[in-house]
Amino acid sequence: METATATDTYKTKVTAAFNGAAATYDRLGVEFFTPMGSRLVELAAPGPGERVLDIGCGLGATLLPAAQLVAPAGTALGIDIADAMIEEAGREAERQGITNVELRVMDGEHPELPARSFDLALGSYSVIFLPDARAALARYADLLADGGRIAFTSPVFTRDTFPFLPPLFTPLIPFELLQHLPEAWHPEQLHRQLHSWLEDPRDLTAALEKAGFTDVEITDEPVLMTAESGEAWVDWSHTQGMRLLWQHLPQDEAAALRERLITALDALRAADGGPVVIEVPVRYVTATVAR
């Protein structure tokens, strides 16, 4: 019997986390993935008749607007490692009346798809979190037709901010809490795996060129994350990547962190009780396959 590798264990945990969150993912009074996905599609500019692949499609924040732009002759395939996400995305496509969408459960790091079968590959906050994202980028280059494009988003990583969250959260989430995470998710490991090539645009460009892309364009823009309240944001954080941290925290530390975040975020609300508005730096990356 084969022994599970650290990568296998990581993917199993991620799959379980997002399967558990699918029913409420991005639906708890917080806006972030939808405006970010819409902006990515705008920059990627899918055209009528094109074949689109969305990697880690979630509930379709990027997939569905892209599908609408390539319709009626174009197609959009969404893949996700979590089958519950695929099911929910299918329901959302049906609700919106979008019929040129196909959805499949698939490991985004090793897509089992025909070579040169897409004109555009998209990945909003997904591609860069694959265990070996740089190797995966080369696989996506192989899936693109001549002149095909890739477009994806990433956090704007810096060495002194809490991983994956806007700078606002760095003083609110003690780094020592990360000791409860598996070693592979500790800051120094994350920096080697992610920040080391995503932090500097020159390194990111070099990685894309090595993977078989050219004409790399990198644009950093803020996305306004809005939450109905501090409590809404904390509840929402259990439905996305931060869920992995919450699941590993001891009960007392999770309760203390929850209270600290709710208090700090509610302090940002306007006097009239308006929403929490957080400016999130997002990196948008586009490139063309080099053939």
From TrEMBL:
CDD domains the record matches? AdoMet_MTases
Source domain of life: Bacteria
Boundaries of every Methyltransferase domain copy: 52-148
Q: Which UniProt keywords apply?
A: Methyltransferase, Transferase
BP-aspect Gene Ontology terms: antibiotic biosynthetic process; methylation
Q: Does the keyword tRNA-binding apply?
A: no
Q: Which InterPro entries match?
A: Methyltransf_25, SAM-dependent_MTases_sf
Q: Name one GO molecular function term.
A: methyltransferase activity
Q: Which PANTHER family match?
A: TRANS-ACONITATE 2-METHYLTRANSFERASE (PTHR43861:SF1), TRANS-ACONITATE 2-METHYLTRANSFERASE-RELATED (PTHR43861)
Q: What's this protein's name? A: Methyltransferase
